[in-house]
Design brief:
By secondary structure, the protein is mainly beta. The chain contains two helices and 17 strands. The protein folds into two domains: 200 residues, OB fold (Dihydrolipoamide Acetyltransferase, E2P) (Beta Barrel), CATH 2.40.50; 46 residues, Ribosomal protein L2, domain 3 (Irregular).
């Protein structure tokens, strides 16, 4: 992927950057691997808004991605690299020798015509192949990592994300997460060799509010701009400070810098916590 700039014909385009899509080889998705996405606008079954700032946006379909890579020891050929409107990373369309087709999250440098395979045994360690963590050498970048065997990939699935295998000891493999955290994961968990594709996604600047609306993101209003009845930070004539001991959410809960991670049984598997923000 590359990033392109355009002529500053309008204020919105002056600061905007765009994806050049040069790595895309197929413009239309595979019909059998697509389902319709129902728009909910952040509302639950009762019609109440549970996630704010959702709504509108361009119509899109959901691609059915194979996160389990459970078609073992069957060779496949990469027939296309496709765009997915639901994620930043690219998708690779795999055609297996038995005729089945599946989508996977494409790693960096995976190209059309490459041969890939998934196996629970030791196979060639090359970009696109899926193996158990116990077979990955130390220092190797991987993506789409399972947290529990057979559960499907949960970690490092978004654009440019990468996990490094630090080593394998006993029942567990030690992984360095994108956040900097080092934790243990069962060595039987599957992963894909290589960094998730499209690492330049993070450098794209939307440039104008309209592009956020196209993505289905509605405007976000500051609490200090509201009335006291609408937000704890609201009220006052002109620009006023919060007026409280610490920032709060709309519902009066502590916000901004408050630890929200709940205690979990997997805490004992964390070797090193992620770096604290300065």
């Amino acid at each position: 992927m590359g990033i392109k700039k355009v002529k500053a014909n309008t204020p919105g385009r002056r600061g905007a950057t765009f994806d050049d899509f040069k790595d895309i080889t197929k413009s239309t998705p595979e019909k059998r691997l697509v389902i319709n996405k129902k728009r909910r606008g952040g509302r639950n079954a009762q019609g109440k808004i549970t996630v704010r700032h959702r709504g509108g946006g361009a119509k899109r379909a959901i691609r059915l991605v194979d996160f389990k890579r459970d078609k073992f020891n069957v060779p496949a050929t990469v027939t296309a690299i496709e765009y997915d409107p639901g994620r930043g990373a690219r998708l690779a369309l795999l055609s297996y020798v038995d005729g089945e087709k599946r989508y996977i999250v494409a790693p960096v440098n995976l190209a059309v015509g490459d041969k890939v395979m998934s196996s629970q045994e030791l196979i060639e360690i090359k970009t696109g192949n899926a193996l158990c963590l116990q077979f990955i050498p130390a220092g190797m970048p991987v993506s789409c990592v399972e947290l529990m065997p057979g559960q499907g990939a949960k970690i490092a699935r978004s654009a440019g994300n990468v996990v490094y295998v630090m080593g394998v000891e006993g029942k567990y493999a030690q992984l360095k997460m994108p956040s900097g955290e080092i934790r243990q994961v069962r060595k039987e968990c599957m992963c894909t060799v290589g960094q998730a594709s499209n690492p330049d996604k993070r450098h794209i600047s939307l440039g104008k509010a309209g592009r956020s609306r196209h993505l289905g993101i509605r405007p976000t209003v500051r609490g200090t701009a509201m009335n006291p009845v609408d937000h704890p930070h609201g009220g006052g004539e002109g620009n006023q400070p919060i007026g409280l001991r610490h920032p709060k959410t709309m519902w009066g809960k502590p916000a901004m810098g408050v630890k929200t991670r709940k205690k979990s049984r997997s805490d004992k598997l964390i070797i090193k916590r992620r770096a604290k923000r300065k």
